[in-house]
Amino acid sequence: MAKQKISAAPSVRRLPSYLHIIRQVEREGSEYISGTIIAQELNLEPIQVRKDLSITGIIGKPKKGYPVHALITAIEHFLGWDDIQDAVLVGVGNLGTALMGYQEFQFHGLNLVAAFDMDPRKIGSTVHGVPVLPIESMDIQVKNLGVKLAILTVPSPHAQETADILIKSGVDAIWNFTNVKLKVPDRVLVQKEDLSSGYAMLCVMMQARKLENKNA
Ligand SMILES: NC(=O)c1ccc[n+]([C@@H]2O[C@H](COP(=O)([O-])OP(=O)(O)OC[C@H]3O[C@@H](n4cnc5c(N)ncnc54)[C@H](O)[C@@H]3O)[C@@H](O)[C@H]2O)c1
Asked: In CATH, what class is 85-196?
């Protein structure tokens, strides 16, 4: 399993939310944005925002804040979102279809070139402009397309075998939405997503609030 650690991971996770606000400010015609405004919008401390933004190499001007356009460019460059990254998706079910329809990916440089499934009713169709191809052709297609990134949304029992084929075909990064901890060689990066972690946080906050209200 790849052991690459990103020391600024929490800061990296916050950057997309900053980008969202800064792009909005740019659309409204502002040239500068202060760290304090971003902090207020996201319920964070201004010092946290300044620290997070410093990893992109951009520094704000006293009293003026950050130049909006340069800040957007710096964040996109830091995240690698100014580079087009071709990707494939495997498993065009409920989640896969939703991800394929997520329009924001185009602003993250993520370009889905093909999707794969085993269901004959889906094969040959086009979902949100992306062709759905037979899983049997995945190895050859991924090799031919030279794709290095895959999004995995198959049922969990098929996750490892699908990942193995992707890796053999040259994929070196997997965005894994299944609940399987994939076994991969060191050269392969895996990011596992779990909506349940976010929901767990919300539940704990709701319980804490209930307790506060009871004791008030
Ligand atoms: N990370 C999260 O928070 C989260 C949220 C929802 C679902 N999931 C996971 O995502 C995965 C998909 O969930 P879903 O609700 O979309 O399921 P689904 O049943 O709607 O879709 C699965 C799709 O994969 C296809 N498939 C099955 N086996 C395959 C194989 N070997 N090769 C290629 N395609 C294959 C099916 O034909 C189907 O189209 C599951 O592993 C689920 O646990 C994760």
From this structure: alpha beta
Ligand 1: distance of its center to the CA of 110 in Å?
A: 20
pTM of the full predicted structure? 0.90
179 lines ligand 1 (CB under 6 A): yes
CA distance linking residue 96 with residue 149, whole number of Å: 15
Distance in Å, CA 202 to ligand 1 centroid: 24
**Residue 74: other Cβ atoms inside 10 A:** 20
Token couple for 52: 């997070």
- Written out in words, the top-level CATH class of the domain with range 9-79 is mainly alpha
Q: What is the pLDDT of residues 162-211, one digit of tens each?
A: 999 999 999 999 999 999 999 999 999 999 999 999 899 999 999 999 99
Whether residue 93 is annotated as binding a ligand: the answer is: yes
Q: Which residues contact 166 (CB under 8 A, 6 or more apart)?
A: 88, 90, 138, 142, 150, 152, 174
176 lines ligand 1 (CB under 6 A): no
**What number is the ipTM of this complex?**
0.98
Query: What is the residue extent of each domain of the chain?
Result: 9-79, 85-196
Nearest residue (CA) to ligand 1, atom 15: 94
* pLDDT, tens only, 143-157: 999 999 999 999 999
